[in-house]
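Entries read chain and fold; for instance:
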Amino acid sequence: MKLEILEKDKIYHIYNRGINGEPIFTSDENKRYFLKLYLKYLENKVETFAYCLMDNHFHFVIRINNETEVTQALSNLFNAYAKSFNKQQNRTGSLFEKHFKRIQIENEEYLKNVIQYIHLNPKHHLDMDYKSFTFSSYLTILSNKATNLLRNEVIRLFEDIDNFIYCHDFKNEVLSEKQKLE
């Protein structure tokens, strides 16, 4: 299977999970360290719209700034984290599934849907309150604290902060009703 090349100025949904669905994060400290490595390896190479770190998988929506270096930078991030996690957990072998997944986002409506999907992950995977989930960009977008996220661009996608909240609440209700029917 040939992997899609990440192109400059394009937006992608990047995600992966632990091998065999196993945890890749066993503590909040693991998640903080992963985000620290994310900044170390990807700062100035990508711009981040949204993210969510779950115990056995992660999601990012990014825009590529530097296509010649970003794939290697992502590989370096995942390798550095896997080595650290394996050492901490006294384990060996692959931590992540073979290749990280990437889907190019080609329009604003799809981008908005992916951002909401990522933010709602805690609710629909673990039945946790996505509004207070620490390892998602949802709270960061709502805050006024300094961030590397494309906060203003995300808010503009949803028109304003109130509509950002409304759209997430509405999608959450729709997904909750759908789950009840299944």
Notes: Strands lie at 11-17, 46-53, 57-64, 101-105. The two ends are 33 Å apart (CA to CA). Residues 56 and 131 are 20 Å apart (CA to CA). The first helix runs from residue 28 to 42.
